[in-house]
Amino acid sequence: xxxxxxxxxxxxxxxxxxxxxxxxxxxxxxxxxxxxxxxxxxxxxxxxxxxxxxxxxxxxxxxxxxxxxxxxxxxxxxxxxxxxxxxxxxxxxxxxxxxxxxxxxxxxxxxxxxxxxxxxxxxxxxxxxxxxxxxxxxxxxxxxxxxxxxxxxxxxxxxxxxxxxxxxxxxxxxxxxxxxxxxxxxxxxxxxxxxxxxxxxxxxxxxxxxxxxxxxxxxxxxxxxxxxxxxxxxxxxxxxxxxxxxxxxxxxxxxxxxxxxxxxxxxxxxxxxxxxxxxxxxxxxxxxxxxxxxxxxxxxxxxxxxxxxxxxxxxxxxxxxxxxxxxxxxxxxxxxxxxxxxxxxxxxxxxxxxxxxxxxxxxxxxxxxxxxxxxxxxxxxxxxxxxxxxxxxxxxxxxxxxxxxxxxxxxxxxxxxxxxxxxxxxxxxxxxxxxxxxxxxxxxxxxxxxxxxxxxxxxxxxxxxxxxxxxxxxxxxxxxxxxxxxxxxxxxxxxxxxx
Length: 499
What we know:
Blueprint: E1 8-10, E2 13-15, E3 22-27, E4 32-38, H1 42-61, H2 64-80, H3 82-93, H4 97-114, H5 117-120, E5 124-130, E6 133-141, E7 144-148, H6 158-167, E8 171-175, H7 182-194, E9 201-203, H8 208-216, E10 220-226, H9 229-242, E11 245-249, E12 254-258, H10 264-276, E13 286-291, H11 295-308, H12 328-343, E14 347-350, E15 369-372, H13 379-382, E16 389-392, H14 398-406, E17 410-411, E18 413-417, H15 421-430, E19 435-438, E20 454-455, E21 458-459, H16 466-473, E22 474-482
Parallel strand pairs: 7-8, 7-10, 8-9, 10-11, 12-13, 12-18, 13-16, 15-16, 18-19
Antiparallel strand pairs: 1-2, 3-4, 5-6, 6-22, 11-21, 14-15, 17-20
Helix pairs in contact: 1-8, 2-4, 2-7, 3-4, 3-7, 4-6, 10-11
């Protein structure tokens, strides 16, 4: 069977890459190759940028409400193709189908929110800042923007950026992860059907050369990125050198604190989803469980029992709660962290290393894994594993939990489980983390609130979507206006009558 070869979508057309280098796309549940992806070159980038640049003046001059109407149509088209997008996503990424459906739903929610541009993009005005002088400000688009998006959310992350950039009057280029390009290919087929003007929205497949081509191109105004911290830092620095705007979201090591007064039975289902949902491959997954005081024993027993009942298998099976890891190399990376935890003296309570799914012997599966008695200085407590590995760091009291969180190099998300309102309020006020959950272990803001961490989890001044995003994709022009005193309009003029 001939496997599909991914193409670029540039200037309203599907075109082949100029490259001679290609990579493989895999079904991680089966361990089978399912497509070929071009590792694009700078000529591909330049073709997309020139198309986007040429489309910008007319798109910028299109009224905001008219731009939003394209998104209204796109939202309906996404709804009509909802299940197909989710199934393509699961096939190439591996996550459980319900996780994929949730991802597609969040993608659509951002398209919906972006249609509010006539409110989101409004400026300001104040008359008589001095006698006869008024001042007002406009938010104006800037030109061509691009997004470089990760493998763990092949559908959603690009659409954290794209609808807001488009609706505010910019043109756009998406660079999907070369590991999972099929989801965006499906999405862009729908974009093509909706009929955006040529060049307004583009897609370029590739790897390092395409990334550097986007970062260095003089006609790109800004870059949005989600991925690992070293890459986020690299993108931030390279954009700074070329004067581009940048929002680069990096890694995480999210800590979930459980206070002695927490209702463990109520908390366990959502905690299981936090640590093992999406096979731990999301930037807001729980990574460190921090039981406070005597609750550790009860929490351990109930967590292990619940984790043992997780159904692991192909993401396309409706019964599956946890699918495979996204790739063979990533599986080896996660396994190496488990080995390192054992070598450094952590207590392995639940071992997922040799987990097998009989129907899928070649799949990239790692079962739920739980460590206890982990010290904060251990590798598994300090580095991002990005897999279904829970590390338990016991803390004696609330203040020790705060210290553990603040000593973390990342500050993406954090959560506390408690029935004490005073403790929860103090936690929110004091904790130095970008996204906080109170009895919510995956504190992902919805599309109309901004998303982003602190410290090594974010490089750049703007969070993504929500209120921050329009500020990122526009710049403010302030106008101070005074008109000389003269003849009042119409006072001494004979205007022609309308026949």
